């Protein structure tokens, strides 16, 4: 019996090889990152001299199992694309699709004008640039009504945060109630690993409530950080997780 033979056209073979090469390149590529506003950042318009901050949720994608360590760089640029403020976090560990919230304080001494915020992802210790994410936030600084600079807000505040219980069982939940936050501001809540886990809203009296926040299965102390979007207030609360 004669055996059948097949001739594969070169064009089909080229497409097949190209598809393999593309897959190999995709698997060999490093992680990509996204940076989004958790709706707790400074407003689009800021009065000169006021305290304000930029918050960004940065998430790692497109890499396999395990973790990746990077440096997170946040920069404020003026209309001439000159860097006027910066904050960076070195040796930040991400899991696939895992993310955290990162903060950049806007200096109250910046002059009136238009500004943008960029985020850079570098390998640890600034060794090499992995990804640059431009214009993640834009804002304008305007003069106050009397034409003078408002003194910067002090770090002292009467704001408080109180957990429903200082000791909770693993796998259960805890509530946090706050007082004397900024009027009608959002309060971002992050855990010990900088993961954004909740956004509470302070009402017209500055009172806030997180509702039930899930407690991890890990026994030990868990510290939660609370950041006001407009007031710049930062508070922490530690809860002990037990069996």
Give me some keywords for this one.
243 residues, mainly beta, Coagulation Factor XIII, Chain A, domain 1, Immunoglobulin-like, five-stranded mixed β-sheet, 1 helix, 8% helix, flat, disordered N terminus
What does the model show?
- There is one protein chain.
- Strand 7 and strand 8 form a beta hairpin.
- Residues 1-28 and 148-156 have low confidence and may be disordered.
- The chain has one helix spanning 10-28; strands spanning 32-36, 45-47, 52-61, 67-77, 83-95, 99-106, 113-123, 129-142, 160-163, 167-169, 173-174, 176-179, 186-190, 196-201, 208-209, 213-214, 220-228, 234-242.
- The strands form five sheets. It has a five-stranded mixed β-sheet, with no helix packed on it.
- The chain has 243 residues and is mainly beta.
- It folds into two domains: 32-142, Coagulation Factor XIII, Chain A, domain 1; 160-242, Sandwich (Immunoglobulin-like).
- The radius of gyration is 24 Å and the shape is flat.
- The chain has one helix and 18 strands.
- Looking at the structure, the CATH topology of the largest domain is Coagulation Factor XIII, Chain A, domain 1
Physical arrangement of strands within the biggest beta sheet: 2-8-7-4-5
Mean pLDDT comes to: 77
Q: How would you characterize the largest beta sheet?
A: 5 strands, mixed
Strand tally is 18
Which structural class best describes the helix and strand composition? mainly beta
Q: How large is the radius of gyration?
A: 24 Å
Write out the CATH superfamily name of the largest domain.
Answer: abc- transporter (atp binding component) like domain
| Strand fraction | over 45%
What would you say the CATH architecture of the largest domain is? Distorted Sandwich
Oligomer: single chain
CATH class descriptor of the largest domain: Mainly Beta
Total helical elements: 1
Low-confidence parts = 1-28, 148-156
What separation lies between the terminal Cα atoms? 75 Å
């Amino acid at each position: 019996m004669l055996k059948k033979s097949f001739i594969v056209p070169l064009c089909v073979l080229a497409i097949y090889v190209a598809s393999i090469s593309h897959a190999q390149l995709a698997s060999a590529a490093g992680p990509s990152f996204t940076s989004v506003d958790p709706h707790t950042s400074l407003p689009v318009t800021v009065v000169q001299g006021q305290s304000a901050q930029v918050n960004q949720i940065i998430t790692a994608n497109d890499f396999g199992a395990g973790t990746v360590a990077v440096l997170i760089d946040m920069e404020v640029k003026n209309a001439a694309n000159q860097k006027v403020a910066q904050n960076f976090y070195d040796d930040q560990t991400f899991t696939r699709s895992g993310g955290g919230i990162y903060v950049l304080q806007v200096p109250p001494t910046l002059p009136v004008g238009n500004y943008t915020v960029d985020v850079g992802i570098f390998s640890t210790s600034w060794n090499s640039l992995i990804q640059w994410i431009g214009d993640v936030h834009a804002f304008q600084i305007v003069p106050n009504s009397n034409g003078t600079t408002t003194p910067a807000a002090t770090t002292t505040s009467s704001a408080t945060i109180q957990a429903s219980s200082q000791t909770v069982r693993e796998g259960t939940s805890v509530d946090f109630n706050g007082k004397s936050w900024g009027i009608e501001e959002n309060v971002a809540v992050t855990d010990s690993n900088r993961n954004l886990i909740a956004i509470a809203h302070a009402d017209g009296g500055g009172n806030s409530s997180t509702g039930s926040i899930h407690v991890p299965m890990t026994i030990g102390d868990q510290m939660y950080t609370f950041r006001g979007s407009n007031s710049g207030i930062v508070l922490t609360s530690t809860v002990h997780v037990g069996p």
